[in-house]
């Protein structure tokens, strides 16, 4: 499988990376080189093989239903949450106006 | 007085503990080395005052007769992928420009709790994507090594932990943190004549470490020798309930159990690693490695890892796929860069911010990852790659019937000139061809220096162990280290 | 009543409805972080570093959220999947800090189940109908955007970001607005019985994505559907179905085609419109979340979930009819809401033990009291009543006095009114206010003797076969006793005296 300029533009849009036509064009051979190369995976017989889920035998641990048990994963730290925001006003993050 | 910057973790820890020198003296020596090494561009942020403050605290604890910890008084460099409270953390990307975490990563916190102190944040490949440190948004890291031909060509320190490898090789710090997703500890260690270990997936918490590819990312120590790696890994590792993939296992005392006696151990030599295009000198070093391990009492056995060839292409689907999603949070809303062109709406802001903030290699991988997950391609690429990953892991499982540890080269070549692979991402990716299989299988793996090539550049040998068997890896590494007697250092041209 | 159809110019159309209900899981903390789920906090206060997707943050699932989803699955008789996984749904929006929602696509925690909507003749549902449920999966809620606080900016509040939701996906088995409404009501009732969701639709704890398509009556193929998002009341769900069905019929009859699109409901106008922000978000690039291992449920965990399930609405209703002897209507009314049956069962237990009879012997009396008598009094008193005074003990003691004949039905009501206004003890009220029947045979006998003496002619007529006159004597006696005589005693004495 290979991509053309139009598909690259579509991927860039899905990935939310602004790209000029020239940039898309430049990326076509770069992506196709990589895609051609990974194509060799198709040679591998994977009949009956499950896709990898957990690389090291381990089961999903769960947390107790306790609020703010650990400050590192708890709430009530608005200042920290907003500390690095490009725009924060009245306790909110600010973004360009969205029309739903 | 001895040059304190020539000391490693163990020597510093023991010297501070027994009063041979103070933590402050050590820190001052390294602070000075860091300050004088700007041409290497290894540090993105220097924190000399913070280091001194922490050193004074260690000295004060000593005065009171308190325990100084596993790494009491040892100043280290911190790869910029680890979030450090109050110290700018960017993953060497413009998109995180100015980001100052209000929290400390588990791994760095563990190190501070063990008495280590921080000299600064180390340069790296942007978001850990690269093998030469050329994808940093803040300039290349220059390897302290130069070819012995008298030329001054700037060489790659490897990547993505290239700031870490360069800083240790140049004696700017005795040790540094690294992260390894597909070779990012082992390859730069090999390029710069130092040691580094990636532990079993889940040994080191990923909490607070900026994610590249979640199912592969593992932190590990980079240091001058195997003993220092064992000490530092012991300080970094440990169960963390904040990371759902963290291993709920006790951390063994790897340092105490170090031994280069390999009697009764079988060392596997995977025949598929004898690849075309591998530097003959690297193949020679591999032969040498076998001889050393035999000398240490091990039995050498041939093994087969039939899916080796497919590990790298599988990796270049899985890692970008995970990265494309992990990096979606960099959108200009909550931290870092925001690009807001005149009249832009929300989605335009995202696209402009990410176009401006991500470097070329990051964009390339996000694009690949987005593509392989997109409608109609998911099974052909992603599911197939995860099945191949299962087969790669199965190869290793079968190999463990025949051997206890695997010996292989770390990389197919020695360090190369910066800029030489600029237009050739695929050749760059091949740097990690020997490193990636162990990453896909989540296995502990390390690189130890084994000698210099004809150009006077370091080469490394890789040891891969069973799950949870860091000890077996460290011990085999120690056996090579003792016999290789590697003491070479780069000539100090940068100050 | 006949099937719900829409009459168009070209013929009759029928509507096909499927609902995806998002129900907020009742838990203290969020699905993957320790931040509180409490409603109404200051903006961005119930937000952890994890919920704000700060660099390096990782999810760890909350066991209680998983438990509640499993219990809910058991309540709809669904397949519980011991192996499930969390997947990432990738898209960019300001209410989604991670750039993906952690959800479950490929391996949901709950598989096929079903729910029975109750027959409702008036609404056009002639008999109970089984609605298929395809799956329930667990996922993160998004944050909230405010558009009206600033002229050029939207504000983002992440308090809801990461709160656990169950998405309950029905089969397209509903064919009228009434069925859709009945489904949401029944589902809400079950969730509230189970305790896995508070069902508070105004606060957004439950909201439905309404999938609607139309086809000509008799066609077997489904038409193209639209999905109207986040509809937050039963009435609105019905309005969406009515509006969308009509709109789609009009589009199709005009020769147009229905686009598969996401729409928004405007409660002000009762109409729907296309949702711009979601227009190009169709490629979600789902893949298993590499931060989370597969979720594998142990037998012990499942057993605890099952053991902790309460009696559910359908079972309870059947028991009320079969064991308590209640009417179909009363049983249905009493089991519709958690609060209703809880009040009833408390009152029933208190009354039965007070009177010393089995529950089934007093159930009908208690049911009538609980469903019509008591609510009627509370309603008529309005503001004057303090419902907190209507304790089970107080009501049980009123019913007890009534059952023993100490008070009449009318007196019971009067006493309850005073209880509601003042909180006084019913027995004390009965004493102090003279609201008691006289069972003293002496006083009643004296009154009856006098009446019979004064009405000898009527006594003759009665003895001559005019049975109806018995009522006359009762009435006269009650009047003489100022309504306070125990009717049973009056009857007995009269019968004895009249022979
Ligand atoms: Mg939906
Ligand atoms: Zn949903």
Automatic annotation (TrEMBL), chain A:
Domain of life: Bacteria
Keywords: ATP-binding, Ligase, Nucleotide-binding, Protein biosynthesis
InterPro entries per record: Asp/Glu-ADT_sf_sub_c, GatC
Keyword flag Ligase: yes
Enzyme Commission (EC) number: 6.3.5.-
Reactions catalysed according to its record: L-aspartyl-tRNA(Asn) + L-glutamine + ATP + H2O = L-asparaginyl-tRNA(Asn) + L-glutamate + ADP + phosphate + 2 H(+); L-glutamyl-tRNA(Gln) + L-glutamine + ATP + H2O = L-glutaminyl-tRNA(Gln) + L-glutamate + ADP + phosphate + H(+)
Enzyme class: ligase
Record has Protein biosynthesis as a keyword: yes
Family statement: Belongs to the GatC family.
HAMAP family in the record: GatC (MF_00122)
Its biological purpose: Allows the formation of correctly charged Asn-tRNA(Asn) or Gln-tRNA(Gln) through the transamidation of misacylated Asp-tRNA(Asn) or Glu-tRNA(Gln) in organisms which lack either or both of asparaginyl-tRNA or glutaminyl-tRNA synthetases. The reaction takes place in the presence of glutamine and ATP through an activated phospho-Asp-tRNA(Asn) or phospho-Glu-tRNA(Gln).
Subunit structure and binding partners: Heterotrimer of A, B and C subunits.
Identification of the protein by name: Aspartyl/glutamyl-tRNA(Asn/Gln) amidotransferase subunit C
Organism listed in the record: Blastomonas marina
Lineage, uppermost ranks: Bacteria, Pseudomonadati, Pseudomonadota, Alphaproteobacteria, Sphingomonadales
From TrEMBL, chain B:
Keywords annotated in UniProt: ATP-binding, Ligase, Nucleotide-binding, Protein biosynthesis
The protein's enzyme class: ligase
UniProt-listed Enzyme Commission number(s): 6.3.5.7
Catalytic site: 79, 160, 184
Gene3D superfamilies assigned to the protein according to its UniProt record, in alphabetical order: Amidase signature (AS) domain
Domain Amidase: 25-474
Classification via InterPro entries: Amidase, Amidase_CS, Amidase_dom, AS_sf, GatA
SUPFAM superfamilies the record matches: Amidase signature (AS) enzymes
Catalytic activity: L-glutamyl-tRNA(Gln) + L-glutamine + ATP + H2O = L-glutaminyl-tRNA(Gln) + L-glutamate + ADP + phosphate + H(+)
Subunit structure, as described in the record: Heterotrimer of A, B and C subunits.
Similarity section: Belongs to the amidase family. GatA subfamily.
PANTHER family to which the protein is assigned, alphabetical: GLUTAMYL-TRNA(GLN) AMIDOTRANSFERASE SUBUNIT A (PTHR11895:SF151), TRANSAMIDASE (PTHR11895)
HAMAP family given in the database record: GatA
Biological function: Allows the formation of correctly charged Gln-tRNA(Gln) through the transamidation of misacylated Glu-tRNA(Gln) in organisms which lack glutaminyl-tRNA synthetase. The reaction takes place in the presence of glutamine and ATP through an activated gamma-phospho-Glu-tRNA(Gln).
Protein name: Glutamyl-tRNA(Gln) amidotransferase subunit A
UniProt organism field: Blastomonas marina
Organism lineage string: Bacteria, Pseudomonadati, Pseudomonadota, Alphaproteobacteria, Sphingomonadales
Automatic annotation (TrEMBL), chain C:
Keywords from the UniProt entry: ATP-binding, Ligase, Nucleotide-binding, Protein biosynthesis
SMART domains: GatB_Yqey (SM00845)
Domain Asn/Gln amidotransferase: 342-498
Superkingdom of this protein's organism: Bacteria
UniProt xrefs under Pfam families: GatB_N (PF02934), GatB_Yqey (PF02637)
Chain segments annotated as coiled-coil in the UniProt record: none
UniProt EC number: 6.3.5.-
InterPro entries: Asn/Gln-tRNA_amidoTrfase_suB/E, Asn/Gln-tRNA_Trfase_suB/E_cat, Asn/Gln_amidotransferase, Asn/Gln_tRNA_amidoTrase-B-like, GatB, GatB_C_1, GatB_Yqey_C_2, Gln-tRNA_amidoTrfase_suB_CS
Catalytic reactions of this protein: L-aspartyl-tRNA(Asn) + L-glutamine + ATP + H2O = L-asparaginyl-tRNA(Asn) + L-glutamate + ADP + phosphate + 2 H(+); L-glutamyl-tRNA(Gln) + L-glutamine + ATP + H2O = L-glutaminyl-tRNA(Gln) + L-glutamate + ADP + phosphate + H(+)
Family per record: Belongs to the GatB/GatE family. GatB subfamily.
Subunit structure: Heterotrimer of A, B and C subunits.
PANTHER family xrefs: GLUTAMYL-TRNA GLN AMIDOTRANSFERASE SUBUNIT B MITOCHONDRIAL AND PROKARYOTIC PET112-RELATED, GLUTAMYL-TRNA(GLN) AMIDOTRANSFERASE SUBUNIT B, MITOCHONDRIAL
Stated role: Allows the formation of correctly charged Asn-tRNA(Asn) or Gln-tRNA(Gln) through the transamidation of misacylated Asp-tRNA(Asn) or Glu-tRNA(Gln) in organisms which lack either or both of asparaginyl-tRNA or glutaminyl-tRNA synthetases. The reaction takes place in the presence of glutamine and ATP through an activated phospho-Asp-tRNA(Asn) or phospho-Glu-tRNA(Gln).
Name listed for the protein in its UniProt record: Aspartyl/glutamyl-tRNA(Asn/Gln) amidotransferase subunit B
Source organism of this protein record: Blastomonas marina
């Amino acid at each position: 499988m290979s991509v053309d300029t139009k598909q690259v533009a579509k991927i860039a849009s899905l990935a939310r990376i602004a790209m000029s036509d020239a940039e898309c064009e430049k990326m076509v051979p770069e992506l196709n080189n990589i895609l051609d190369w990974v194509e060799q995976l198709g040679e591998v017989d994977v009949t009956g093989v499950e896709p990898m889920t957990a690389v090291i035998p381990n089961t999903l641990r769960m947390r107790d239903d306790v609020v703010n048990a650990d400050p590192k994963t708890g709430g009530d730290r608005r200042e920290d949450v907003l500390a690095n925001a490009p725009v924060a006003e009245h306790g909110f993050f600010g973004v360009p106006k969205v029309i739903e | 007085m001895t040059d304190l910057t020539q000391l490693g973790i163990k020597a510093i820890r023991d010297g501070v503990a027994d009063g041979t020198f103070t933590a402050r003296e050590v820190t001052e020596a390294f602070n000075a080395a860091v300050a004088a090494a700007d041409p290497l561009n290894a540090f993105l942020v220097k924190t000399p005052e913070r280091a001194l403050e922490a050193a004074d605290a260690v000295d004060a604890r000593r005065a009171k007769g308190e325990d100084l910890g596993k790494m009491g008084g040892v100043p280290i460099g911190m790869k910029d992928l680890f979030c450090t409270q109050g110290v700018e953390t960017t993953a060497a990307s413009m998109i995180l420009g100015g980001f100052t975490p209000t929290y400390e990563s588990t791994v760095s916190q563990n190190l501070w709790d063990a008495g280590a102190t921080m000299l600064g944040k180390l340069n790296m490949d942007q978001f850990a994507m690269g093998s030469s440190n050329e994808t940093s948004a803040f300039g290349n890291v220059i390897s302290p090594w130069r070819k012995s031909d008298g030329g001054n060509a700037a060489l790659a320190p490897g990547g993505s932990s290239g700031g870490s490898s360069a800083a240790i090789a140049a004696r700017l710090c005795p040790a540094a943190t690294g992260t390894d997703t597909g070779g990012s500890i082992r390859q730069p260690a090999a390029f710069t004549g130092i040691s580094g270990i990636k532990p079993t997936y889940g040994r080191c918490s990923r909490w607070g470490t900026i994610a590249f590819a979640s199912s592969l990312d593992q932190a590990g120590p980079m240091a001058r020798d195997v003993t220092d790696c064992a000490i530092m890994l012991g300080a970094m590792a440990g169960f963390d309930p904040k990371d759902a993939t963290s291993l709920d296992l006790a951390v063994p005392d790897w340092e105490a159990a170090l031994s280069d006696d390999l009697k009764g151990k079988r060392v596997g030599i995977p025949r598929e690693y004898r690849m075309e295009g591998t530097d003959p000198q690297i193949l020679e070093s591999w032969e040498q490695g076998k001889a050393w391990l035999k000398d240490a009492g091990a039995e050498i056995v041939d093994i087969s890892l039939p899916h080796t060839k497919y590990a790298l292409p599988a990796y270049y689907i899985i890692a970008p796929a995970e990265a494309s999603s992990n990096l979606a949070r960099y959108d200009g809303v909550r931290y870092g860069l925001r690009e807001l062109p005149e009249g832009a709406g929300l989605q335009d802001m995202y696209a402009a911010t990410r176009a401006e903030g991500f470097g070329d290699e990051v964009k390339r991988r996000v694009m690949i990852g987005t593509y392989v997950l997109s409608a109609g391609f998911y099974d052909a690429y992603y599911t197939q790659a995860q099945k191949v990953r299962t087969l790669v892991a199965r190869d290793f499982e079968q190999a463990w019937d025949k051997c206890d540890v695997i010996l292989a080269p770390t990389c197919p070549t020695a360090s190369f000139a910066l800029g030489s692979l600029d237009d050739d991402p695929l050749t760059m990716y091949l740097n990690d061809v020997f490193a990636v299989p162990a990453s896909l299988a989540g296995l502990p793996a390390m690189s130890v220096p084994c000698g210099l090539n004809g150009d006077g550049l370091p080469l490394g040998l890789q040891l891969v162990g069973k799950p949870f068997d860091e000890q077996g890896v460290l011990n085999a590494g120690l056996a090579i280290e003792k016999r290789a007697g590697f003491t070479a250092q780069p000539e100090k041209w940068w100050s | 009543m006949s099937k719900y159809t829409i009459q168009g110019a070209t013929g009759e159309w029928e509507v096909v409805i499927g609902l995806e209900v998002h129900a907020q899981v009742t838990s203290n903390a969020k699905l993957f972080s320790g931040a509180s789920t409490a409603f109404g906090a200051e903006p961005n206060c119930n937000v952890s570093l994890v919920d704000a997707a700060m660099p390096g943050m990782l999810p760890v699932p909350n066991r209680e959220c998983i438990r509640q989803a499993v219990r809910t699955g058991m309540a709809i008789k669904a397949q519980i999947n011991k192996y499930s996984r969390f997947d990432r749904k990738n898209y960019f929006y300001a209410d989604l800090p991670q750039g993906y929602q952690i959800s479950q696509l490929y391996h949901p925690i709950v598989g096929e189940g079903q729910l029975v909507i109750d027959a409702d003749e008036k609404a056009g549902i002639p008999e109970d109908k089984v609605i298929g449920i395809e799956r329930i999966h667990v996922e993160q809620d998004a944050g909230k955007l405010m558009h009206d606080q600033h002229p050029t900016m939207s504000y983002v509040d992440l308090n809801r970001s990461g709160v656990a939701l169950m998405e309950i996906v029905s089969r397209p088995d509903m064919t009228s607005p009434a069925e859709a409404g009945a489904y949401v009501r029944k589902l809400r009732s079950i969730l509230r019985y189970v305790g896995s969701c508070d069902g508070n639709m105004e606060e957004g704890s439950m909201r439905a994505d309404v999938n609607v398509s139309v086809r000509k009556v008799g066609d077997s193929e489904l038409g193209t559907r639209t999905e109207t998002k986040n509809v937050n009341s039963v009435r609105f769900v019905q309005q969406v179905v009515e509006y969308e069905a009509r709109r789609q019929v009009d589009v199709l009859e005009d020769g147009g085609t229905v686009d598969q699109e996401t729409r928004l409901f405007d409660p002000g106008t009762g109409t729907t419109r296309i949702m711009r922000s979601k227009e190009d978000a169709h490629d979600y690039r789902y893949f298993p979340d590499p931060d989370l291992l597969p979720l594998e449920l142990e037998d012990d965990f499942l057993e605890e979930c099952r053991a902790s399930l309460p009696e559910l609405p359908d079972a309870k209703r059947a028991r009320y009819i079969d064991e308590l002897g209640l009417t179909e209507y009363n049983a249905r009314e009493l089991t519709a809401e958690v609060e209703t049956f809880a009040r009833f069962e408390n009152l029933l237990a208190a009354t039965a033990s007070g009177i010393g009879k089995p529950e089934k012997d007093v159930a009908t009396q208690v049911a009538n009291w609980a469903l019509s008598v008591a609510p009627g009094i509370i309603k008529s008193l309005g503001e004057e009543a303090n419902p907190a005074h209507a304790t089970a003990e107080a009501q049980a003691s009123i019913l007890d006095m009534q059952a023993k004949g100490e008070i009449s039905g009318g007196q019971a009501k009067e006493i309850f009114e005073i209880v509601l206004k003042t909180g006084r003890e019913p027995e004390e009220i009965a004493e102090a206010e003279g609201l008691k029947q006289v069972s003293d045979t002496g006083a009643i006998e004296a009154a009856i003797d006098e009446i019979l003496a004064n009405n000898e002619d009527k006594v003759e007529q009665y003895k001559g076969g005019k049975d109806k006159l018995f009522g006359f004597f009762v009435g006269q006696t009650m009047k003489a006793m100022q309504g306070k005589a125990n009717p049973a005693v009056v009857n007995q004495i009269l019968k004895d005296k009249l022979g």
